[in-house]
């Protein structure tokens, strides 16, 4: 075990303690292990760090050998956003599927099982759940990551998810405060803006966060978006009005406040990550999440030095940095204690598939022939947002190939995709797989063309089902997780 460096001063240790950096590789690099000895309290893991559950357990064991109470964080929402199963697709449906079923006990059980699997691999801090109310159907980054468009539904399922996840000893991080649902801009690329008035915000955006706080959420993640009714000048992550006056003061939240990734363009493109980190801590944030795109020691060094200099220059009060660092250490102590307490309840390895099956709806607009022979699966592939990524497979092709041997699959994009699919199918029945058709005009045009040429086409919608059902039949999964694909394929074959 590394002994804490005796020469590391308190200020530097506190600056390291508020960082949540990432790194490259499936083993911990020497610089991470050294920084853990110097005061680093937390690290963040991404898909690039994970090859298998056994490898992940070895990695977290390596980290814990250097610092037994280290916070090992991950962005594991289940559904479309998975790091634990980044190469296969998730064993759990996402929030939108759970919201459609609207069984809070099921949501709690799904989150508890996900928490058990994370804890078994040594992960004790999950940047989930999303508590955003997806009130804008054109939202390019939330969508199926939200439980739905109704604030009451989102609130009760957020609370259930927090309770389930934390029952397994994994700290929940409810996001993205004060709410990212009513946006048409992805904060990975630019600064979104929400123009709702304070009354709407209180009733809609804030309701799920109140529920999460009441459920004991150990952390809350801030959003990089401008909400003029709350603060006309600063995005949420950098706003004292949002983080300190509203979240701490009005809502009474006392846990850890974590920023969304600081290298996202909404912050990095306007302020830079160094300046942004100082402003975030001054506003009331306790932990700086950086590592999704920047995964090197130099980033950690620059941020640490910047925070130390900000304190020495008087720009950042020393007591504010110390308070933030202590909140991170307090959460680390909670997770260390939770690891020593056995998780209640029995494992439920099939709960994710059960939930996915319950979320599927099948709509028939007329008589349809059963699917009994091999089909041609045409996946209409939109560009994935950064949160979801493009590494994770999705669709129904693999499962239909298992159920109907001889089935083949193609991937298509562009307005002429419908004609190309019809030609590629060569007389076989088509299963067209779409994702958020309502957000992609090219997809709508392609599907119109295909359905005109092949009216018996089965349509599987794996995004938010906003467009009118069409197809023979139309199957909505409300997510693109692996289990959603399994459930959809079963529905196709069952007729």
Number of strands: 14
Tally of individual helices: 18
Sketch the major β-sheet.
Answer: 6 strands, parallel
Q: Which class best fits the helix and strand makeup?
A: alpha/beta
Q: Averaged pLDDT, please?
A: 93
Radius of gyration using CA atoms only: 23 Å
Largest sheet: spatial strand order: 2-3-4-5-6-7
State the shape: globular
Element layout with pairings:
Elements: H1 10-17, E1 19-21, H2 30-38, E2 42-45, H3 53-66, E3 71-74, H4 95-101, H5 104-120, E4 125-126, H6 151-167, E5 171-177, H7 198-203, H8 207-214, E6 219-222, H9 240-250, E7 256-258, H10 265-268, H11 273-283, E8 288-290, H12 297-313, H13 318-339, H14 351-359, E9 361-363, E10 376-380, H15 397-403, E11 408-412, H16 417-425, E12 430-434, H17 441-453, E13 458-461, E14 474-476, H18 482-494
Parallel strand pairs: 1-8, 2-3, 3-4, 4-5, 5-6, 6-7, 10-11, 10-12, 12-13, 13-14
Antiparallel strand pairs: 9-14
